[in-house]
Amino acid sequence: MGGHDEPAASGSFAERYDATLVPVIFRPWARELVRRIAPKDGDRILDLACGTGAVGREICASGIEPGVLIGADISEDMLQVARSRASEAGIKAEYLRASADDLPFPDHSFDVVFCQQALQFFPDRAAALHELKRVLVPGGRAAFCVSRKLELNPLLKAQAATLDRYASTDAGNAVRAICAFDDAQIMRRLFEDADMTEIEIESVTLTLSHPDGRAFAQGAMGGMHTGDKMSRMSAESRNESIEHFMTGLGDCFDGKGITFPHVSYVVTARA
């Protein structure tokens, strides 16, 4: 089982997350959301629960020049990485700490709001969606994506099982929480109750890949909040956990690379 005896990736959780998980998972979903809304030059855009800024970078990579681009997140560590990556890319954006259910913006501040893989974590989803409605201009557009159940997402299922065994049940449950909001009817009702219109909810599958499955597995577990615990393992235990992850992927692992479906609900709506 040689070939991955080096320590887990160094750096902060947010840096590990951005280096490993964003290119493989969050950038493709950012691209999908941007494709569906197709923002225009001059649009005032909010990236809600922005993480390390994948959506904003994808918007600018598409050639769009927003009038305003703001990312909001509760994690200052994530925001620091977002600011750094935006600066490196020459992107004019503001990143600020804010909770989705208490946004520090005047009414009708934005033409477009994006939110990827975060609605499932909001403590008060109803309040967050009422804030979404408030900060959008009338007719403004929103696009969200939310991972579907674990059984449809083999990479997350394998990761949860590996963390259960080699980190803790709490660590495995942190992955399960990603897939815990798999009810399209409740989701639709939340948007309706916030007076959003033209609500469309679609189950979307992206086929994602990485050429080195073991390298990704090591980075993915380091890109969780349990990364520090995983990094303290002996090389033997860490290698064993990575092999457990690979075995759990089944046919998604070809002995070297991984190719796997990632299934989410995509929600689009208007204010």
Automatic annotation (TrEMBL):
N-terminal signal peptide: none
Superkingdom of the organism of origin: Bacteria
InterPro entries hit by this protein: Methyltransf_11 (IPR013216), SAM-dependent_MTases_sf (IPR029063)
Keywords associated with the record: Methyltransferase, Transferase, Ubiquinone
Pfam families reported in the protein's UniProt record: Methyltransf_11
GO molecular function annotation: S-adenosylmethionine-dependent methyltransferase activity
Keyword match NAD: no
Biological processes per GO annotation: methylation
SUPFAM superfamilies (UniProt xref): S-adenosyl-L-methionine-dependent methyltransferases
CDD domains hit by this protein: AdoMet_MTases
Stretches assigned to the Methyltransferase type domain: 46-144
Protein name according to UniProt: Ubiquinone/menaquinone biosynthesis C-methylase UbiE
